[in-house]
Amino acid sequence: MPIIIISADARETEEGIAEKVAEAMGYTLLSPEIMAEIGTKNHLDPEQLCNELEATPHLFQKLLSCQWRHDLACIEGEVLERMLADNIVCQGLCAHLYVLGVSHAMKVRILSGDDRAAANQGLLEKTKRDRVVQCRQRKKWSMAAYGNDETDLSRYDLVINLGQIDPDEAVKTITHAAAFRKFQVMTYSIKCLANLALSARVTAVLLETMSDIRVESNDGSVVIFGKASNRNKLSKITKIKELAGKVKGVNFVEVHVKRNINPIS
Amino acid sequence: MSIITISRGSYSMGKAVAEQVAKKLNFDLSSRDILLDASRKYNVPEIKLINAIRDPPKIIERYSHNKQSYIAYIQSALVERVLNDNIVYHGLAGHLLLRGIPHVLKVRITENLDDRVRNRVSLDKITAEEARVLTLKDDQQRRKWTMFLFGEDPWNSALYDLTISIDRLSIDDAVDFICQASRSRALQTTEAGQQQLLDLAVACRVKAALVDDFPTLNVTCEYGNVLVYPRGKDTASKKLLKKLDQIRKDISGINHLETHSGVKTPEKAV
């Protein structure tokens, strides 16, 4: 059965809809609650991990940026690993930005619409303003982290605006869509997901000690693109091969070290 | 039941979706025929209306206000047409021209650029490169047009109730989604919703009658009580008062008509 990835312009909306969809379909809900486990596994602070999904490092905080990318890769690896179990509803983990090319992953965006309660209290303008600011921040974050604009509607299979459509109706629409043939699990789509998970695991391991890494994998074969000066090239290749080779599921490692690469995979 | 507007990028299969939705729900289907209605009623060549709703304004047009007149005519024709309810409109700008009406389901169909280019190549028998350039140009024009007239980006998903990507979904799936959403309780026609639509129709009639001479004024209507918001030198114009007297006699559905000058125009004004 498909993986349903829910993203929204407001956290409460995202949580509410995801919980309802998971309950209606009897699926497992993957939420930021897994941060504690990710933290324990990777010796990281869970609160810090939650923060990484929201805050973009400042332009001049180069060192922080390395740690940030490493933390994101740890989250990504764990989420993708869990998604392999199937029958998953995922929210609050930005999976819509890194689960790419997996045909059984349905991406849904929920827009909160005009908050009626806020309108009644005369707070509508303020709510709208806050949402615009929030939206701008999310756009900036998603561009910095994955080179994709989270607010671009063409990224999603379905966008539902709760301004007019009742949340329960939205849940019904999502569960109905999940049954479509195009979202059914196929051997190939599982393979794509496994490849993404392996890439994320290798990235996380490499980013512990180095920066500017891009990883692609296919069936256990991993191609790593790194950046180094000519003088350090050989030592870097050896180091990458050694570290990546230790990751579970890696059968073969190919390394390309260049002077300049695109770090966003 | 309700009104469904389907907006789409060029060659995004939105027309096919609209036709099937109308068939499945047994609704009327409308698109360019709105332009014919407007052309007939306001005695404007259809080509001018097509250009007004398709092309972004040229520099000279920004000062001549012709586009505003044509848009007012088209909006009036569209609102008259949807008054009877149970209609699918897949022409341009439906979601913007019917803003504020609660029982309008605003749908956006998206498809990735490569597929749109492929559709264009097969339909127009042109090369892929030409198709790509033309499709991108279309998108840019649409964006400019909407930004100029409504201050909104057509790619802003907040303008729509439902956005469906048919890259991975089929036309049938999209039709299913739309039909299901149209059954939503909030989108059913209510007495209040129908009254809002009637009021919008009256406001549009008044605006269409005035727009040629007073392109910058705005109009609202509530339960047949029409408020006209003139700007600048129009405020004290005798011509406006004369015209309003005429409108009171000619246009049906008006209980009371007055001008409000020097106050902020409400957002819902046309």
Written account of the structure:
- The complex is a heterodimer of chains A (265) and B (270).
- Chain A is α/β, with parallel strands linked by helices and 265 residues long.
- Chain A has 2 domains: 3-183, P-loop containing nucleotide triphosphate hydrolases (Rossmann fold, 3-Layer(aba) Sandwich); 209-258, Alpha-Beta Plaits, CATH 3.30.70.
- Helices cover 49% and strands 17% of the residues of chain A.
- The longest helix of chain A is centred in the middle third of the chain and has 23 residues, at 124-146.
- Residues 115-120 of chain A have low confidence and may be disordered.
- Helix content of chain B is 50%, strand content 14%.
- Chain B has 2 domains: 3-187, 3-Layer(aba) Sandwich (Rossmann fold), CATH 3.40.50.300; 199-259, Alpha-Beta Plaits (2-Layer Sandwich).
- The longest helix of chain B is centred in the middle third of the chain and has 23 residues, at 128-150.
- Chain B has 11 helices and 8 strands.
- The two termini of chain B are 25 Å apart.
- In chain B, helix 3 crosses helix 5, helix 5 (66-82) packs antiparallel against helix 10 and helix 7 packs across helix 8.
- Chains A and B meet through strand 5 and helix 8 of A and strand 4, strand 5 and helix 9 of B.
- Strand 5 (158-161) of chain A pairs antiparallel with strand 5 of chain B, so a sheet runs across the interface.
What keywords describe this structure?
heterodimer, A: 265 residues, alpha/beta, Rossmann fold, Alpha-Beta Plaits, five-stranded parallel β-sheet, three-stranded mixed β-sheet, 17% strand, B: 270 residues, 2 domains, 11 helices
SSE topology sketch:
The complex is a heterodimer of chains A (265) and B (270).
Chain A: E1 3-8, H1 11-25, E2 28-30, H2 35-42, H3 46-52, H4 62-83, E3 88-91, H5 95-98, E4 105-111, H6 116-120, H7 124-146, E5 158-161, H8 167-178, H9 187-207, E6 213-218, E7 221-227, H10 233-245, E8 252-258
Parallel strand pairs in A: 1-3, 1-4, 2-3, 4-5, 7-8
Antiparallel strand pairs in A: 6-7
Chain B: E1 3-8, H1 14-25, E2 28-30, H2 33-42, H3 46-54, H4 61-64, H5 66-82, E3 87-89, H6 94-97, E4 104-110, H7 113-124, H8 128-150, E5 162-165, H9 171-182, H10 191-210, E6 218-222, E7 225-229, H11 238-250, E8 256-259
Helix pairs in contact in B: 1-9, 2-5, 3-5, 5-10, 7-8
